[in-house]
Amino acid sequence: MGRNVQPTIALSLSLLCLALLALIEASAPPPCKVKVTYSMMSRLTSKNRTEGDCAEAWMDLQSYLQQTAQNLTECLEREASATASDAAATACQPLFEQLEQESEAVRLQLNKDMQNKLLYEEIEIAKAKNAIARIKKEIVSVQGEFKGYYQQLLLIYIDAGDTRRALPPVPTVGVLEGD
Predict the structure, then answer these.
(1) DSSP secondary structure letters along 130-158
(2) Reported pTM
(3) Taking a C-beta distance cutoff of 8 angstroms, is the pair 72, 24 a contact?
(4) Where is the signal peptide (predicted)?
């Protein structure tokens, strides 16, 4: 009967452990996983055991439980640190969103201001181009007038030269000879 007590205790502990692990796994976040291999369960539940097999299975179960306890401790520590960082992130999220909205509003305002300045500069450039075109037309017009005046002046000089040739020379006024 002593031989049957240890496997029964081991089997009961393993079932308790599995139930505990299932409960923990159901409430734990996905990164925390505890693995129970098929060979471990088959060795614990096999009916034909020798005393050496039971002792080995018992030692395996104890080491497995120690490893599971360590894994759960590490898991809880990770969970606590993740919760703290999540809490900080959750507390910072509204501030981050507010700053993001403010920066977006500033960006939109700057964009609007730059568009207005660009439009103003484009209008000023168009005005300057129109003024330059008008001045160029006036220069061409003045150059045309100047050319016309120059041609008229040239014709006047030509006419003046023709009239000098056509008129007799004018005597010079001097002292009369018989006086």
Answers:
(1) HHHHHHHHHHHHHHHHHHHHHHHHHHHHH
(2) 0.37
(3) yes
(4) 1-26
